[in-house]
Design brief:
By secondary structure, the protein is an alpha/beta fold. The chain is 20% helix and 24% strand. It has a 7-stranded parallel β-sheet with strand order 6-9-5-10-11-12-13, with helices on both faces. It has a 4-stranded antiparallel β-sheet with strand order 2-3-1-4. A 4-stranded antiparallel β-sheet has the order 19-18-21-22, with no helix packed on it.
Length: 524
């Protein structure tokens, strides 16, 4: 299995080979400015300068871990270990990047989806209905206003037709490649489509209205230790870019020959570098959803009773896979973790899941890689309902409302997700803690065509707001008093008979007025 990443011993070897890569864990963080989270402070430039004096060239600088990764010769490692500010040196260890597809590349099902003009589920309805996710989507919950991050392989620029609304509405915030080489493949874009795709009649993702960030941290042609390195850099980048929930459809355990791998004892929620990064992300308020892995129990003599890193993280929402008949998929990894915790947390369908494929087509795919993005979309809906939910509260609601919440086990965790119930729990939480004053988010879409939705969060004891829509220089075309409840409300105006143009909208509460502009263009 190789040397555990916690080992600090120097291994004998051929010193003429390319130097091995290590994490250099540093002590004594710089004192941050007031009200600054210490984990977000950059690595001390003084420490980096001192390392450079030893000939060390940092590859990744991790703010969260207060560490740098670098290639070190035996001599450099001894010199670096002697530096007073170096706490530990660990091999950059990780594991096989489980790009979780359990079948050969599937053929396209439909190369010409109809234009995205309505909420028509098509073949995606089946997997959504099995986790009670259709009703929230029909109510209009789509992750609007929530920013989702993906750590994965190649995203193909998210150019598939299922992402046309995402690009059109400027919700594709950024894509970045953290690997050293370019690559092909469909995995990253297919995973993202399950969460955020919108091709009515073919594929509808639970978070089709969310914003998207994509970090390529997996290089699929090989399985090397560098992928954990890229993972940490990518996750920190997603945090800096404002991701509220992150999907991780990759995992680590065993690397290529000659690389450092994990032992089963390392899968304890505290050892893996990516595991520790996920826990740090949760401490910073970012919910991380991780696929459990595909090392399940296909036959009695090949069972693997562990989830990989970072699915073993204490704070991760780890997702296993079930079949369309709601039984556990044979490939779905199962727990417990090395320290005895139940994993996975929940399961959703992971066989015959519809995803965008290649540049135009769709395909039925399988693996826990395509289970976790469904849960990520539901989490986005929960955060749309209540942006103040902490990662641990999100996980608690998902667990409490799942099918076997009273009797969890290491096969299906707390059971099959019930999206409607989890979102209702988020709604109750939001209404129990309404804002102190009326808040109004930007109306959408803008420009609008036939409908305009205005998100309103009302304080306690508020029963209605007045909404007006006025054309320049002051002609009022809409004037309505709308009933609201404390907490989140989505008010939709029918503008099908309203002329095109630029309008001023006003939302008047008991003590506060919000206003802004919105364009109306009824043309397709």
């Amino acid at each position: 299995m190789g040397v555990p990443p916690s080992s600090a011993s120097v291994l004998p070897g051929d010193t003429t080979q390319t130097p091995d890569k290590y994490w250099i864990l540093l002590s004594e963080r710089p004192t941050p400015p007031e009200e600054t989270e210490p984990w977000t402070v950059p690595v001390s430039s003084t420490y980096v300068s001192r390392l450079r004096e030893e000939g060390v060239r940092p590859v990744v600088r991790s703010r969260w871990l207060h560490a740098v990764s670098a290639h070190l010769t035996l001599e450099q490692r001894s010199a670096v270990a002697a530096l007073p500010f170096v706490r530990d040196i660990r091999p950059v260890a990780g594991g096989q990047p489980h790009v979780h597809s359990v079948a050969p590349t599937p053929p396209p099902l439909n190369s010409s989806p109809p234009p995205p003009d309505s909420l028509r589920f098509g073949p995606s309805r089946g997997s959504l209905a099995r986790i009670n996710a259709v009703a929230p989507m029909e109510r209009g919950l789509d992750g609007h206003g929530v920013r989702i991050g993906f750590l994965d392989a190649h995203f193909r620029g998210l150019q598939h037709a299922a992402f046309t609304p995402l690009r059109r509405d400027d919700r594709m915030i950024a894509l970045r490649n953290f690997t050293e080489d370019s690559q092909g493949g469909n995995h990253g874009s297919a995973v993202a489509s399950v969460t955020s795709g919108h091709a009515p009649g073919s594929l509808i993702g639970p978070a089709r209205g969310a914003e998207v960030l994509g970090a390529t941290t997996e290089y699929t042609p090989s399985e090397t230790n560098a992928e954990e390195d890229d993972f940490v850099a990518g996750l920190e980048w997603l945090h800096r870019r404002g991701a509220q929930v992150v999907n991780v459809s990759i995992g680590y355990n065993t690397f290529d020959e000659g690389e450092d791998s994990y032992t089963t004892d390392d899968l304890d929620g505290d050892t893996g570098i990516t595991t520790r990064a996920v826990d740090r992300a949760a401490q910073l308020g970012m919910t991380v959803v991780v696929s459990a892995g595909n090392s399940g129990c296909a036959s009695p003599d090949s069972c693997w009773y562990y989830v990989n890193t970072p699915a073993d993280a204490d704070s991760a929402i780890t997702v296993g896979a079930m079949t369309p008949d709601s039984s556990l998929a044979s490939f779905s990894s199962r727990g417990p973790t090395a320290d005895g915790r139940i994993k996975p947390d929940v399961v959703v369908q992971g066989e015959n899941v519809l995803a965008a494929w290649d540049d135009e087509g769709f395909a039925q795919v399988g693996g826990t890689s395509f289970a976790s993005p469904q849960v990520t979309g539901i989490v986005a809906q929960m955060l749309q309902m209540d942006p103040d939910l902490s990662p641990m509260t999100v996980r608690r609601f998902l667990r409490q409302t799942a099918s076997q919440s009273q009797n969890p086990d290491n096969r299906m965790g707390w059971g099959i997700v019930n999206a409607e119930a989890a979102i209702r729990a988020a709604e109750r939480h939001a209404r129990a803690t309404p804002p102190s004053t009326l808040t109004v988010d930007a109306p959408y879409p803008n420009p609008a065509s036939s409908q305009l939705t205005i998100p309103v969060r009302a304080p306690a004891h508020t029963s209605s707001v007045r909404i007006t829509l006025s054309a320049f220089p002051g002609y009022t075309t809409v004037d309505r008093t709308v009933a609201v409840r404390p907490g989140p409300n989505w008010i939709t105006l029918d503008l099908s008979e309203t002329p095109s143009g630029l309008y001023v909208y006003r939302v008047q509460g008991t003590r506060r007025l919000h206003s802004g502009t919105v364009a109306l263009d009824p043309s397709p």
